[in-house]
TrEMBL record:
Transmembrane segments: none annotated. It comes from the Bacteria. Residues 1-23 are annotated as: Disordered. Keywords: Heme, Iron, Metal-binding. It comes from Actinomadura viridis. Residues 172-323 form the Cytochrome c domain. InterPro entries: AAA_16 (IPR041664), Cyt_c-like_dom (IPR009056), P-loop_NTPase (IPR027417). SUPFAM superfamilies: P-loop containing nucleoside triphosphate hydrolases (SSF52540). Gene3D superfamilies: P-loop containing nucleotide triphosphate hydrolases. This is Cytochrome c domain-containing protein. The lineage of its organism: Bacteria, Bacillati, Actinomycetota, Actinomycetes, Streptosporangiales.
Length: 398
């Protein structure tokens, strides 16, 4: 069939042609937006799940919903060992710029931007060489003088709380809300997570119309709980997983039918078996199947022909690229995990599989967690962040 008309879109954070199986989460966020609009207290929201289940897609869908309500929005992607001070300043700057044309008092906006600029510049500069030079040149792009005495103490918890309170006050004046979206939230440094929770806690107490919506790996709730004990009550949590059969079929059929293409029931059976309901895999297999199928309807034989090519692409782009980031010791650790099965495995069992003491494997385990390849499902257990990663590793030559 015509590859130009191929509707399927496997990609990192790329919205699929049909956002299937996420109605509950979309409705939950609609409630959050409506409650904030009515001045009612509401918690910020956290989305968790494995890689490839559509967390970033859902985060972007939430942002679109907020924009449709004329909210100010900004988004960042957290990175390990990088403070969120400057990225959050840029995101909040973007959000307030969206509100500025509707604000009746330009001086009020300028006053907040002065506080925002001071906040952005208050953090410690990275030490040494080029990093120090880059930090010295960095400017937040705000054309007002930095204010003094507000959100500029250098203590992120104090500064971020004051900044969020001021931003919420601006949003209240305009009569809308502000939403900040944080992807890969588990990568925020521990001290910054604590500061972010404290700022959200203050907002929840004063009822300010500013929310933080985070997305991260399954252990994100544990990361938040370790920073502030009240984080369990601070956020509304939504765990997303693979699609059920009905939703996976809908994700396949709805875009195809718009192109006058159908699937046989056997083809849908085969595709669900191959993709296992994971949204990224659904798109990856469907894209290849479309290109190899000679005509409609798409049949189970077309799936058999396309599956090796789809699996080869996944092996290189989805699995292989992550495997290559690991050190030899980390690869040994992951292969041992894979040999023990696809469920979370005890770290002691991994050590036994490798014939090593558990303490000697801590650097490899910690390195893999930092790289986002595994996570600690609970104390003493580890699991892959990528679905079917164990199956991929077992298929590779030793």
């Amino acid at each position: 069939m015509d590859p130009v008309r191929n509707p399927y879109a496997p990609g990192a954070g790329q919205r699929p042609p049909e956002l299937a199986g996420r109605d509950r989460e979309l409705q939950q966020f609609e409630v959050v937006l409506e409650r904030v609009a009515r001045g009612r207290p509401e918690r910020s929201m956290i989305i968790t799940g494995l890689r490839g289940v559509g967390k970033t897609v859902l985060l972007n869908a939430f942002r679109s919903m907020a924009i449709q309500r004329l909210w100010g929005t900004g988004k960042i992607e957290a990175r390990p060992d990088q403070s969120i001070r400057r990225p959050l300043a840029s995101a909040l700057h973007m959000a307030v710029r969206e509100l500025a044309p509707r604000h009746r008092a330009p001086d009020r906006i300028e006053g907040f931007l002065g506080v925002l600029k001071a906040f952005a510049q208050a953090g410690e500069e990275p030490a040494g060489g080029r990093a120090k030079a880059r930090a010295h040149r960095w400017q937040p792009g705000i054309d007002v003088p930095a204010s003094r005495g507000r959100a500029d103490s250098g203590d992120l918890e104090i500064d971020l709380t004051e900044l969020f309170v001021d931003a919420a006050s601006v949003a209240t004046d305009v009569g809308v809300g502000i939403a900040l979206f944080v992807d890969e939230m588990q990568d925020i440094p521990a001290d910054d997570v604590s500061a972010l929770c404290a700022a959200c806690h203050e907002l929840s107490q004063i009822g300010g119309p500013l929310i933080v919506v985070g997305a991260g790996l399954p252990h994100l709730p544990a990361v938040l709980s370790a920073s502030k004990s009240y984080s369990e009550r601070l956020f509304r949590y939504a765990r997303i997983d693979r699609l059920d059969r009905e939703s996976a079929d809908h994700a396949l059929m709805a875009p195809a039918e718009r192109e006058q293409v159908t699937f046989t029931p056997e083809a849908l059976d085969a595709l669900y078996g191959a993709a296992d309901g994971y949204p990224y895999f659904v798109q990856a297999y469907a894209k290849v199947v479309w290109d190899v199928a000679p005509d409609t309807p798409i049949t189970a034989d077309d799936i058999k022909v396309a599956a090796p090519e789809a699996e080869s692409e996944l092996a290189v782009g989805f699995f292989g690229s992550r495997y290559e980031r690991a050190t030899p010791a980390e690869r040994d650790y992951m292969r041992a995990m894979a040999m023990l099965g696809d469920d979370p495995v005890p770290t002691a069992a991994v050590a036994e599989e490798l014939g090593r003491k558990p303490s000697s494997l801590s650097p490899a385990r910690d390195g893999l967690i930092k790289k986002g390849l595994i996570y600690s499902a609970e104390r003493g257990l580890v699991a892959f962040t990528v679905p079917h990663f164990g199956k991929f590793l077992r298929s590779q030559p030793a």
